[in-house]
Design brief:
- With 141 residues, this protein is mostly helical.
- It has a domain at 28-53 and 70-131.
- 46% of the residues lie in helices and 0% in strands.
- It is built from six helices and no strands.
- It has helices at 2-9, 29-32, 40-45, 73-87, 95-119, 125-131.
- The longest helix has 25 residues, at 95-119.
- The chain is elongated.
Length: 141
């Protein structure tokens, strides 16, 4: 196996611990590494830049990211499901104060995800089931 031979010939990398954040980025999931260490609203806010419709094949030259590096609607939904499953375990201490901000952010995420899905040229079978769009088969021709 190729992967086993690569693993056996190279020693495992040594990782340096990230410094603990302070200031405005304190709630960042990327910096803290655990959802329990940050508030859920800050984690969801990091998803907003990912919630953009994918470009077509001919648009990749003008953009900074290739189509393969962009998150599609399937990946975004899976990420949201995963984050919400973790959020059930991480209960914020001041839940009432953040509830209104969280609801506003969730409405914004729903709008962005809706835009991503409606602008997708070809929906996966999973998204077709979720959105109620009929899956076209060869028998339909």
């Amino acid at each position: 196996m190729l992967t086993m031979s690569c693993l056996s010939t190279h020693p495992p990398p040594r990782y340096q611990p990230l410094p603990l954040p302070s200031g405005p980025e304190k709630g960042s999931l990327c910096r803290q590494g655990a959802l329990g260490d940050s508030d859920f609203t800050a984690v969801l806010r990091q998803l907003l830049p990912l919630m953009k419709p994918r470009r077509g094949e001919d648009d990749t030259a003008s953009g900074s990211r290739s189509r393969e590096e962009e998150c599609g609607p399937d990946e975004l939904i899976l990420l949201l499901v995963y984050l919400y499953s973790l959020a059930d375990e991480a209960q914020p201490s001041d839940q009432d104060a953040e509830e209104e901000e969280l609801e506003k952010l969730e409405r914004e995420l729903i709008g962005q995800l809706t835009l991503v899905i409606t602008q997708e040229q070809h929906l996966s079978p999973l998204l077709q089931k979720l959105t109620g769009e009929r899956v076209k088969t060869t028998a339909d021709s």
